[in-house]
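Lecture 7 notes: from sequence to structure.

We start with a single chain of 337 residues. Read the sequence below before looking at the structure.
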Amino acid sequence: MAARPRLKDVAEYAGVSPKTVSNVINDFEHVSEQTRTAVREAIDALGYRVNIAGRQLRQGRTGMITLAVPELDVAYFAELAKHVMTEADRRGRTVLLHQTGALRERELAALRGFDTQFSDGLILSPLALLPHDLATRDRRLPVVLLGERSAEGSTDHVGIDNARAARDATDHLLTRGRRRIAVIGGAVRGRQGTDRLRTDGYREALTAAGLPFDPDLVVPVQAYHWQDGARAATALMERPTPPDALLCLNDHMALGALRALHERGHSVPGDLDVVGFDDIEATRFSVPSLTTVAPDKQEIAQAAVSLLLERIDDPDGRPVQDQVAGHRVIVRESSGG
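Now the structure, written as tokens:
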């Protein structure tokens, strides 16, 4: 039986040093594309396979990272988790998935490394943490935050520009001639969470268009679920002067709103337009199909995994980073697309 090819065999075949082979395997920068191609061809030719478990054990690591999200039955988080798992697998890591239920005690448990013995670092999407929780966390556990962070400059973070995204969505509705745009899931006051930032972006778009801001058109909800969108849409359309557009701060609420409007005989996009956030897969198949703000979930996942692995490899090697992923408004039938 032939011996299993070793890293030094790959190096000899490619005509490079073992260190260069290691750099290519770990996807490090500063390796020329010609060298990278030669090493990959050598790996394929020899059938070399990285012994990930052995390498991690030698480094005193598990080879696993934790992803903690609020709710897996909210499609955005499930789709994001898939992208994180894909990127982690590409980088030779396994993902432990934890659902926090948007409860502070569960988010704190994740932040404090409840499974440090199994995991080398944490990617966390927090909803309930307080600024103090992040500012005073144990620095021995590498952490990357997703969404809106509460402690400026203390923890690596990846997200979109929520205010700009909401402004772009509102601008789209304004170009359609809509003037009474209601925000389902919005917040006029409170901490700078996602709901507040998106409401701020909506308000900025109105101001730029010379329109007054009406706080009565900003409708808070208990949760960002289907039924919350349906209830809010129903209540808004029962007002003496109903809105002519709904900006829903996630797609679940927007789809719930579409159902409620349909049941009550309102035409979309005839009587009013509806726009969501997140571009979950279901938005392509609703009737009408849903206009939505699409965060680049793949970019978010890749950036988060990359930042976390960098922090695991070198905890103090670089300053804290705040990376902004892209977004775009995808116009579909619910707003005339």
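The mean pLDDT is 91. Keep this in mind for problem set 3.
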